[in-house]
What we know:
By secondary structure, the protein is of the alpha+beta class.
Amino acid sequence: MYFEVFLDVLFLRNLVMDYLLLRAVNRLLGRRESWLRSLWGSLIGALGVCLWILIPAGNGMGSAILVQAALSTIMVRVGCHTRTRRELAGGVLLLWAASAVAAGVWQLLLPYVTGRGPWEFLVLGAAGAGLPAAGIQVYRRKKGRAEHTYYVTLYANGKCKGVKGLYDTGNGLWDSTVGKPVSIVEPGVLEDLFSQEEMKGMKALLGGAWEQELPEGLRRCRPHYIPFSTVGRRDGLLLALTLDSLSVEGEGKFLVVKRPVVALSREGESFFREYGMILNPSLIDS
């Protein structure tokens, strides 16, 4: 038994379907990557499938699984510009799930499509890739999740650090001296932005011991204290710093904030769980 395969048709079909699926995965991940990135990712996927077909020794079940896993990983990394391993793994799983649903939708609609030309193929492809994304988006909205997560990149002293941030409507901290909203960050997150000497000075400030001579990198961040209060606790003070900038990405948004104010949580506070930062809603909604 043998099959006749037209590589040009195989390439074009995979290119179109992979592109539509990557656009859907981008949407599901809450990212705003350009169509060009999705096109590059789909181009890699289509070329990879064609090359795999041309290799005589690589058509077994085991090689098929390995090739598809490798191609899916590269496609998501390029097409969705994922930054962390966890995000990459989630994107690959979403791509596989969307592909499975798209194949099912394709089989359901195929009997009702009279022609087999390029327009019919595009309609089937758009429906197969679009329906999974639309269905999951509707489910998410109906579920009405209170927690919204973003990917936040902090910049200070010529360095950057990426963290997972939680949009918290209960965070109403405000720095009245500069008139800016305040987000809360875990002190450990800042270790990649400041030197050991600067972190030592920061810990002293957290303990309430204001040192006369602060390290230069810490002094540039204008450390000061801001009042705060929480339910069931007495009013207190939090150490606040002004960073160079931060970027926030997720939920279909991307924004850059210059000179943001962040407050450091005190040891023992249970704000964070798996998050490195608690975002002030005014920072996102402004």
